[in-house]
Amino acid sequence: MIVAAIPALNEEKTIAKVLAKARRNVDKIVVCDDGSTDMTGEIAEAMGARVLRHERSMGYGAALSTLFREALRLGGDYVVLLDADGQHNPDDIPKLIKPLLDDEADMVIGSRFKGDEKRMPMARRLGIEVITEFSNETTGLEVSDAQSGFRALRTSVLKDLMPAEQGMGASVEILMKARERGLRVAEVPVKVDYAGLETSSENPLLHGIDVLASLWKVYSIRYPLRLYGGIGLAAVAVGAFFWIWALQVFLAEGRLVTNLTLISIAAFLVGALSFFVGIILFTFITIVREFAEKRFR
Of 5, 36, 86, 294, which has the fewest CB atoms closer than 10 Å, so is most exposed? Predict the structure, then answer.
């Protein structure tokens, strides 16, 4: 059984068309109405979808968590995530499902950069490329479209991929969890349609900041020593550079260059603080994980 899982917020203009096309390629449709103030939920119900409502908008990641739990309850074999704004073509669903059916992947991403990237607005494309580059560095995966909301997954992996992030950073968090659990991730090209989407109330800049902040948070939780240790080493290197420079001037001219000295001291302090934060976070997270493992054994 294939379940279409659709997060939706104020998409009354497009939700009916998305559902009408999706039902041709799936067995069940579940919509999470994330606090819409329009007729999104009512239209989805009238179209025969199972609608789960949030009383207020809780964010993309929260909607995914609700949809994942419902898909697990329904007991389907595969779940297809797609947006309700009409940018994804539900006729591409069989293309996403095929690598799962062929046992070639556990999660399949519908990549806009392998398909219709030329139809994507320039600002959107550049933003996604930046986020994808950071995502690949963080997750260790090599995907072309880390922010694609068009994905197919085996239902059996949903528990492992349940997002903790409530915002847009959930899309990258899922990739990181997939990498950590050794899941196979594939990409297929998909068609996109951005007609009318530029008037969306979602600010692209805030969207990007949200995702990058989530990347930083997730990475700092999972690899605190690597992140803050790296920052610390870089800061110490900068401090050493300016200290040597100041020392050379002092030995050559007998005067202390205040600016160089202050920069070196500040850099050393930042380095020491970064090392301290990394050690504290690593210790705290280790204790929490050990406690959780003992509690749930």
Answer: 294
The boundaries of the domain holding residue 245 are 224-295
Cα–Cα distances in angstroms (integers) from residue 232 to residues 94, 245, 250, 286, in the given order: 48, 20, 26, 21
Would you say 172 and 164 are in contact if contact means Cβ atoms under 8 Å apart?
no
Contacts with 255 (C-beta within 8 Å, 6 or more apart), sequence order: 249
Name the H helices within the chain: 15-22, 40-46, 60-74, 93-101, 122-139, 158-161, 170-180, 204-222, 224-253, 258-295
Domain-terminating residue out of 169, 186, 219? 219
pLDDT at 76 over 50: yes
Distance CA 175, CA 79 (A): 16
User: Is the pLDDT reported for residue 149 higher than 80?
Assistant: yes
**Residue 19 and residue 46 share a domain:** yes
User: What are the tokens at 189?
Assistant: 């090209």
Higher pLDDT, 200 or 208: 208
Per the structure, how many domains does the chain have? 2
Question: How far is Cα 162 from Cα 203, in angstroms, rounded to an integer?
Answer: 26
Answering whether pTM is above 0.70, one says yes
Q: Between 120 and 130, whose confidence is greater?
A: 130
